[in-house]
Every structure is written in C-alpha cells, then in structure tokens.
Amino acid sequence: SFLYKNIDTIICITKAVENQIHNFIPSKIRPKTITLYLGAKNPPHISKNELDKFKTSLNIHNEFLIGFIGRINEFKGQHLLIEALRILKPKNLNLKAFIIGHPMQESYLKSLENRVKEYRLENTINFIGFTKEPYKFMQICDVMIMASKNETFGLVTIEAMKNQTAVIGSNSGGALEIIDDMNTGILFENQNFVDLAHKIELIYNNNDLKHKIALNGKAKADEMFDNEKHFEILIMILSNLNTKNDY
Predict the structure, then answer these.
(1) CA angle 247, 175, 14 (to 5 degrees)
(2) CB of 230 within 8 A of CB of 37?
C-alpha cells in the first residue's frame, strides 16, 4: 500500500495488464495507469540475392517455411508446432520448419528432439539454436508461429510483422491485442495443436491470405508497435508527470 500510494503513474505494456491493475489494486491507493505498447525496430533491408544465399546455406529449395523463434522452454510451446507437423505429415505438404533459440531447459530440448525422431520429421524440423540475426529467418519464412501459453505481450510477434511475415499466434495474452484474426495475423486455440495444424494448412493453401496478412501486419506494426514512436510517447508521458495534462 505504501508503494502504490507513492507511485504517480504505472505504464502498462497491454490493456490486459492495465485491467489487471484496476482489478487488483483498490482505487483509493491505485496510481494513474497508461497503456503503452512496446515497439520494435525497423529491420535491416536484405537483398533478394543475399536471402537466396542464406536459403541455400540452409538447404532450402521451394518449401513452405515455418519459423519459431524464442527461448526453448515448455512455456513457449515448441512442442505444439512439432505435434501440429505430425498431424500434417500424412498430407505430404511441402513444409520445412526452423526452431530457433537458446534452450533454457536441456531436458525439454531433448524431449523435442526425441519427438522429431519418433515422428520421423528429421527432414522437416530443424533446430538452429541461438542466432544474432533472427530477422533473416523472419524474412525467408512464409509464417512465424507464436505458441506461448500466456505471453504478456509478444515482442517476437511484432518483430515478425515488422519484417512483413505472416504470423500465427495463440489466442491468449498479448497476442489478442496484436493480432486481428484473419487480418493482421491468424489466431489458433491456445494449447490446441490440432487447431494450429489446421491454421498452418489454411495459410499454406491460400497464398492471397498469406500476403494480405503479411502486408496488414506490417502496416499495423509500423503504426502501433514502432520503436521510435514508442519512445516519443514515453518521453511525452515522463515529461508530463505530475501535471494535469492528459496523455
């Protein structure tokens, strides 16, 4: 109570977080709240020639490419993508997936690798590990998957959108404020790998939908989740603390 009484303003990264604060902090001690979405930097431009060389280095030909970037732990949900691809395997779709990130739990990574072997998906799913150039994968991929159980925001999602890559995210947490279903991205039922498989197949079979989502996603990210705009608003908020101005 002492802490809240002495805070002027709480800056929330989503409206959901702001609603939680209003629900759990009594109004008599609740500071002022403002929602300010995080921003992502504009990605570097990579020429088609350079991207083609990058694809060649990864033994990519004309496959439909799926990316999953994030820390490798159960919360992030890499296993959901593997299970979705197991379901899609009998359909003989021309898919290749990249799971990119540092393992936070070696036992979980091992379990993922064992599933890939058990399902005979070694030629479909590739574990890349940590990369300093995630934007390269985003720009070559047809779709990026975000399958976290309940992500507070989802920075990778807006980064993929900034790279003009279509996104599929679970319908929970921050993704609900980032993705407008079937417009700036596609939502699948949280923790439901059967539905994830369905959404991957949907975008695989609909190139027009993929391009529409990629273009609309980039437009929304540039407008609402831009790094420079974020800091401009943050500076304005900090400059107006303890004033009567509306933000």
Answers:
(1) 25
(2) yes
Q: What is the rounded end-to-end Cα distance, in angstroms, of the chain?
A: 25
* Burial (CB count <10 Å: 0-12, 13-18, 19+), residue 165: buried
Determine the Cα–Cα distance for residues 116 and 194; give it in Å rounded to an integer.
17
Confidence check: pLDDT of 80 > 60: yes
Q: What is the dihedral of CA 19, 21, 27, 30, to 10 degrees?
A: -140
Using a pLDDT cut of 70, give the percent of the chain over it: 98
When pLDDT is cut at 50, 70 and 90, the band that residue 228 belongs to is: very high
Backbone angle region of 207, left / alpha / beta, with phi > 0 → left and psi within -120 to 50 → alpha: alpha
Structure token pair of residue 129: 């590990």
Judged by DSSP in three states, 134 sits in helix
